[in-house]
Amino acid sequence: MAPARDTGTLGKAIAVLDIIATASEPLRFTDVLRLADQPRGTLHRQIANLIEEGLITVNRDQSYGLGLRLLQFASRTWASNAFRAIAEPHIRTLHEATGETVHLGVLHGTDVVYLDKIESRQNIRLVSQIGNTAPAWCTGVGKAALSALADPDLRALIAEIRFTRFTPHTITDARTLLSEIAAIRREGNAYDREEHELGICCVAAPVRSADGQLIAGVSVTAPAYRITPEFFSSWAAITRAAAAAIMRDMAIQLSPRRSA
Amino acid sequence: MAPARDTGTLGKAIAVLDIIATASEPLRFTDVLRLADQPRGTLHRQIANLIEEGLITVNRDQSYGLGLRLLQFASRTWASNAFRAIAEPHIRTLHEATGETVHLGVLHGTDVVYLDKIESRQNIRLVSQIGNTAPAWCTGVGKAALSALADPDLRALIAEIRFTRFTPHTITDARTLLSEIAAIRREGNAYDREEHELGICCVAAPVRSADGQLIAGVSVTAPAYRITPEFFSSWAAITRAAAAAIMRDMAIQLSPRRSA
DNA sequence: AGAAAGGTTCCACTATTCGGAACAACGTTT
DNA sequence: AAACGTTGTTCCGAATAGTGGAACCTTTCT
Questions:
Q1: At a CB cut-off of 8 Å and minimum separation 6, what does A183 contact?
Q2: How distant is the Cα of A134 from the closest Cα of chain B, in angstroms?
Q3: Is the pLDDT higher at B226 or at B121?
Q4: Each residue of A90-145: pLDDT tens digit?
Q5: What is the C-alpha to C-alpha distance for residues B159 and B163, in angstroms, rounded to an integer?
Q6: Whole-prediction pTM
Q7: Could you count the other beta carbons within 10 Å of the beta carbon of residue A14?
Q8: What is the DSSP secondary structure assignment for residue B202, as one 8-state letter?
Q9: Complete DSSP assignment for A196-243
Q10: Residue of chain B whose Cα is closest to the Cα of A120
Q11: Which nucleotides of strand C come closer than 7 angstroms to any CB of the protein?
Q12: Mean pLDDT of B15-40
């Protein structure tokens, strides 16, 4: 999920929460015990605290799940996020111009967290993706974001990446990634050519705040079969335009207060 | 937001997070200091820890915002919630049958947390509502849920409510609420007649798990002007049917493992 | 019934947090 | 320009809250 050395009481608690959150299936006490590197008594109390705070819940079979409290917090996170609010009209425009799914994601460590998404058709379930995390090096938004980093930061970040292959097209080494990022910087667009998921391609463009605090990207995604070279290159331009518009609005609106 | 006595280190940290989350506008250090009842040094460290864990972020003007980490956790909360998954096909059916906005919410203290929502038209922004919290006593889902509580629990909960008026129709005392709940139990449906927001009405039905662990509700919402008595009563029936279907599926699917 | 695994409670020890106070960095006033 | 008030950050002894080993229940298997 994310780094954060589990230092301090809070850190340890969050580490446990993270274990439960990232598990692919419900964990029981002993399962967590195996994954967390802690004595039984200690872990038991930590979990009890988390339950007390509503961050996790116990299912009837004694397995743990994530608590509603997290949803409440996230709802406010999303609603109060200034960057998302600024970007929203622009990604909507982008969606209307292309008719395809568009994403807004920000860089968070070596991952990208999706802040917003407008789906091509289905008027439902898009929720499922907001807050989702995906590796930066094999997504359009992620690579676009990486290209917006200053070189030292970029190299430091890439050094942290543990490359995993998702499809035959996934980039799996730092050199290739670096040269691709060089290309992105030249052209102004990043592409995902079925690198994260087979059959899915996208065009993206980088977004960054003036002070470099916020590194993000916008993208247009579509199934590979539907993409023609003409569309792809026209999308490239309007994606860059959307990114530019977002940056412009940020410069205007974020000068006095707030940020992402 | 929610109860949770801020006991223990974790509790205090979450209390601070809560302050930042519930604030209507970005808080700076001193603002938080005023709201939290803690010495400066202590608060400072707590905030530093929260930042370290990615739960809050500092904006450039030194005000605090909620961190992306919360979105990540919530995304997983939502995706892994078994109750939501079970209810989903049924609320979708309900949406298709009525063409109106439908909600799925669970009772959490004296509030209702919305777990899912399908909007009538707009294929966007529904996100904003998931994880949202609303008072139980003046929403359809909330009153439906209350009606599913055992009497002692109900009375205990109502005793905790601090009634606030949102519209001229809002119920503002326990007696009225109790008699309305009696009616809901007789009829099987709860109604919100512009009690939370003017111009908005809804029909709801209670959902509870066999063991009473999970108290929830489903509802159909529509603008008051669009509602005719005929529609309203036909919706009442199919809303009850949806609730019944959800309960049936819960009984089946939750017997061996998991829950909400 | 017996054994093992899973889960919970206890309590002396100690590492962490607490919180007052001193310090630094601005901005504002006299 | 010197003094002051605000806001945010750092320190450190004292005390509290978390730690973790071990004993203790409870459930599940053999």
A1: none
A2: 10
A3: B226
A4: 999 999 998 888 999 999 989 999 998 887 655 444 445 778 889 999 999 999 99
A5: 10
A6: 0.87
A7: 28
A8: E
A9: SSTTEEEEEEEEE-TTSS-EEEEEEEEEGGG--HHHHHHHHHHHHHHH
A10: B123
A11: 5-11, 16-22
A12: 88
